[in-house]
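Below sits our specimen:

——
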Amino acid sequence: MKLPRYLIVGLAVTALLVIWSQFTTEPEEEGLTLNTLAQEKPAKHTHSRSETSVAADPMVDLFPVPRTPVIEQDAMRPTEAAKRPDPILPLQVLGAWWDSGERVVILSDGKQNKLLCQTCRTKGYVRPGEQLLPDWTLMTLADDHLMVEWQPEHISKRIELDDLKSKPTR
C-alpha cells in the first residue's frame, strides 16, 4: 500500500520532533524562574474574590471527592446491623396433591387456602410470578422448595417442601 506524500511528510516531521524532544533537555533553572516569578508576583488584579484565591493556590481540585471521616463510618455500622427483621410469611405449607401429572402445593393461613401450580391454567391457581398476598409474590416453585418475595423491600424467602418432593406411590 502506498501512502500519500503529505502523510509521509507528516509522519517524518512527527518522528523527528519526538526524537528531538527525547534527546534535548530543558535547563532546570528555567523551570525555577517560572515558579519564583509566579510566587513573587503580587495579585494586583482584584476583579473578583475567586481570581485572587486561584492565583494564591496553584493546585486547585476541580473535581473534589466528598470524604467522610472514619468515625462516621463506624457509627453507621451498628445501624446497618439493626435492620428490620425479616418479614414473616403468614402462609404455611399444608400439603400437596398430583393432578394429571402436575403437583399442586397448598398454602394456608388458617382462613384462606392458596393453590400453587407450575403450569396450571385454571382459575384460582397461583403460578410463579403472580401474587400470593398483597405484599408477597411467588417467584419459583421448584421440586424441593418455594421462593417467595416480599415486595416492599424485595426480600426473598425460601420455603422447604420437605416430604412433598415426590409423587406418592400406591
